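All the exercises in this workshop are built on plain-text protein records. The record below serves as our worked example for the rest of this section.
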Amino acid sequence: MNEQHSGIEVSVINESWFEILAHRKSELQQQGKESDKNRMIAVFGGAVPSPKSSRYTQAFNVGVELAKQGAIVVNGGFGGVMEATAAGARSVGGITVGITCENLPAKVNEYIDVEWQVSRWDQRLLALVFLSDGYAVMPGSSGTLVELSVVIETQIKGFIPARPIVCLGGHWSSVVKRIAGTTDMISFVRSPTELAKILTQK
């Protein structure tokens, strides 16, 4: 749709892909055993950890604890922390969602129940941020830093309402301390159980 403002033609893009995903989220939440508790929690973390690593085990336990609290676990759908949290959630009967994109070569992991594929990486990031009801942040690298930064910025700017952000361990503490106004926005916890309780409490 085009509009005219002061002689300049403005093209308004209809973000139908996001509307579709928001509708699918609503449908998915109704499938849960306790629909009032079925929050969708995004998990961010590195794609590197292998199944034999301590970080993979830690992420697996995060998935377990979130699912035990009735949360739907959503992540980028690929390997490392994404695979581990999905595997953990599935192991206790939880629902898992992977938001992937066409221009990344990786395949969705076997523990994802529902795959939502978008066209571009930036759409994937925005879907994870805007559709989720809370954020679990695991140790990671530059990709995880981008995800955490977008979550912080969208809340500071008021693009999304305040939603819980919980970091497991102290991996990101020095980064958060350097960003003004974030101290009260983010919780740091030591265990997957603490993380899940904060992210799923009413």
